[in-house]
Design goal:
With about 280 residues, the chain is of the alpha/beta class. The chain is about 35% helix and about 15% strand. It contains 12 helices and 8 strands. α6 packs parallel to α7. The longest helix has 13 residues. The protein is globular. The two termini are about 30 Å apart.
């Protein structure tokens, strides 16, 4: 099956500069006009990379909306909502009004641990408004991380804490997780909770280790979501992982078997009772 034959919405992309190294062409027009078409995506949830390292995300969100305005048909703004910051509820309402299908949270960069009440409040609010909550585990592997980047990785305990909230309808997307973190999170949840969590699978290993194939067999392709991680990683990673699956899995797990932004956004809105 050709990559372009399925409509897929990338759940993890950014625009803007990265503070710890140069990234090539992190511009909205490059993402919209070149990267998505090349990789077979029809659209992308797009965040603002510099804002992940700002204390106050307001200016970052303003820059994101402005940069994506000419590309609204392909790039859906995924603004930052920092729940331990004043008036975060206003930021979330503004995101909904702007048509955001997801919002970004960076607990590691903000120093928010698994039991921080602000994360619970954000997750519940996202569930009520029908917006997916996107949590970034890490931006780079520990081996390439800059010495000044001391945030660490988001833990499985934090992810499970969000998914386990009583009465929550939050649909959670986890980006930057390897096999171990995915399994530690997924198998620590009830079936109902598992059904509201997806994992951008681009950080898992393919052949010869076979971690991705193992996840497809056990966790299932419907819990694994397409993401490019542009501009921080090779955008071909996710597509290559699927293309190189063993023959038996490849036959039963075509491109459309994996989740994408459109599917997740639809389910989040449906759970919140929001018109599609």
């Amino acid at each position: 099956m050709n990559a372009a034959s399925d409509s897929r919405i990338d759940v993890t992309s950014w625009i803007g500069s990265y503070p710890f190294r140069e990234v090539p062409h992190p511009d909205a027009d490059v993402l919209a006009d070149r990267v998505l078409e090349r990789e077979g995506f029809t659209g992308a949830w797009t965040g603002h990379l510099p804002g992940a390292f700002h204390r106050d995300p307001a200016a970052s969100n303003t820059a994101l909306y402005r940069a994506l305005a000419p590309h609204q048909q392909r790039l859906n703004a995924a603004p930052i909502v920092r729940p331990d910051w004043p008036r975060w509820e206003v930021t979330l309402r503004a995101a909904v009004q702007e048509g955001a299908q997801s919002v970004r949270a960076y607990p590691a960069q903000w120093g928010l641990g698994p039991r921080h009440p602000a994360l619970s409040e954000l997750a519940i609010a996202c569930g009520e408004t029908g917006v997916a909550l996107h949590v970034t585990v890490r931006f780079e592997d520990l081996r390439q991380r800059h010495p000044l980047d001391g945030a660490g990785d988001v833990s499985a305990a934090l992810l499970r804490g969000i998914a386990r909230l009583e009465g929550s309808r939050c649909h959670l997307v986890v980006a930057g997780a390897g096999r171990e973190l995915i399994e530690e999170t997924h198998w620590g949840l009830t079936p109902e909770e598992q059904g509201r969590v997806w994992y951008d699978f681009g950080w898992t290993w393919g052949a010869p280790e076979g971690a991705f194939a193992h996840l497809v067999r056990t966790v299932g392709p419907d819990r694994l979501a397409w993401g490019s991680y542009w501009p921080l990683r090779l955008t071909q990673q996710s597509r290559s992982l699927v293309d190189l699956l063993p023959d038996d899995l490849r036959a039963n797990a075509p491109y459309r078997a994996f989740a994408d932004g459109a599917r997740i956004a639809g389910l989040a809105r449906q759970a919140a009772g929001v018109s599609l």
